[in-house]
C-alpha cells in the first residue's frame, strides 16, 4: 500500500469540498489499495457524518453509512433485500461494510485486481484480458468488446428489482437517480461504471413502497455455500391473487456487467397461473441477448434454472 493522507471531515459540506476518495467500511477500498489497483493520495473517512438511519414507514430509506448487517436484520425490510444482504460476504464483513460502499464496490474480475494484466476498467485502452483468458465467472449480458466483468453486489440486484433510487448530494444540492440507471454498461468506456459525478456523494438509498414486496426472495447460486460471489442469482417479488400472478419484479446477478432487470420475464409472468410450467416458460427468455464466452456458456441455462428456483421457493405455499 502506498502512502496517503487520511482526514475525517466533520460535515457533509466539508467532505464535498475536499478532493479525495471516500472511506466508509473500507472492505473494498482497503483491499484495492493493498493491491495497488487504487492509489488515492487523499482518503476521507466519512464515518462520523450524519448519514445513518433506517426508515420503513413508507417504503424504505437507508442512510448510506448503515451497515449491511443492520439493514438485513431490521424489521420491515423487504425479504429480497434482507436475504441478498445475508448471502453477501461473511458476517464479519457485513458488520463493517456500508450499504453505500456495497453499491459502489468494484468488480471482482481477477484481471482488474491484477495490476500486471491488461484491463480496460483499470487502464483504459490496455485491453480486456478476460476475453481470451479464464472467463468462467464473467458476464454474458451487457458486455462489450472492451469489458466482460460482472457486477459484484448482491443487494444491488434486489434493489434494482424493486425500483430503488439513490440520492446523490453535491454542493449544488441533491439529485435522485434510479439505481437501474445509475450503473453503466461498459460499451466503449468501461472505466465509467456509474453516474456519480465529481463532487457528489451517495447519501441515501430509497425503495418505493410496494406492499406485495413482502412476498419476495433472493436466490444465489455459487461454487460454495458461503463467502463466495454469485455464478447466477435472482431477486423476485410476486403479487399473487387466486393462484394467478398479477404483477412481478425480477432481476438477475452474476451474469451481467450491471444488475440486470429481467423485464421480459416479468411480462411473461403477468396473468399466468402459479405453476412450474408457467415459471419455466417465463424463464426461457431470461438469457435473451446473451453472449457467452469460452468458459461461461453454462450461465445461460443456469440463469433460467435460478429464476425458476426463486419462483418455486416464493410460491411454495400457493402451489399446494
TrEMBL record:
Alphabetic keyword roster: Oxidoreductase
Keyword Hydrolase included in the entry's annotation: no
InterPro entries (UniProt xref): CO_DH_flav_C, CO_DH_flav_C_dom_sf, Diverse_Substr_Oxidored, FAD-bd_PCMH, FAD-bd_PCMH-like_sf, FAD-bd_PCMH_sub1, FAD-bd_PCMH_sub2, Mopterin_DH_FAD-bd
Keyword Oxidoreductase applies: yes
SUPFAM superfamilies hit by this protein: CO dehydrogenase flavoprotein C-terminal domain-like, FAD-binding/transporter-associated domain-like
Top-level taxon of the source organism: Bacteria
Domain FAD-binding PCMH-type: 1-212
Pfam families for this protein: CO_deh_flav_C (PF03450), FAD_binding_5 (PF00941)
Protein name as annotated: Carbon-monoxide dehydrogenase medium subunit
Organism: Amycolatopsis bartoniae
Listed GO MF terms: FAD binding; oxidoreductase activity
